[in-house]
Amino acid sequence: MKITxxxxxxxxxxxxxxxxxxxxxxxxxxxxxxxxxxxxxxxxVVTRRISEAFFNKPIHAGELLVFNCVEPRKGKTSFSFKVxxxxxxxxxxxxxxxxxxxxxxxxKKLIDWSKAPICxxxxxxxxxEETSAVPEK
Length: 137
Ligand SMILES: CC(C)(COP(=O)(O)OP(=O)(O)OC[C@H]1O[C@@H](n2cnc3c(N)ncnc32)[C@H](O)[C@@H]1OP(=O)(O)O)[C@@H](O)C(=O)NCCC(=O)NCCS
What we know:
18% of the residues lie in helices and 36% in strands.
């Protein structure tokens, strides 16, 4: 599912002249949070894991970055998925994310998957089930 798009501006570049990695991680966490909140229907989620993060190719000023979330996997208190950052038809960056639903005190809570929007809108798999990694356009 496409979540958001950002344009890489000159102010977003690092000393190498490419997009600064920290800026990409900021956009990633924000886009992933939006997806996790929408998909689970939970008011509060926190980032538990960002792993397997790969910068595949440099990103340059003027390029449009599309953030796609794919391969959703439901847990008891957690929700995991992959984020693909696509420029044109190229996956320039990818990462694995896990978010955990929390209550007002910040303690983990069970997700009610029967009411989760993602279960009504599209398939969501349990860990181990196969899903497509192809980003939507
Ligand atoms: C998120 C938090 C409440 C979890 O509490 P906890 O009691 O430690 O619970 P755990 O992390 O052991 O388990 C919670 C879920 O995360 C999953 N999890 C934990 N580590 C994981 C990992 N490395 N990869 C994938 N899933 C993981 C567990 O399997 C569990 O999922 P399930 O209930 O669906 O089976 C707590 O770790 C926390 O507050 N962390 C800080 C969050 C934060 O500040 N994030 C940045 C700002 S949003």
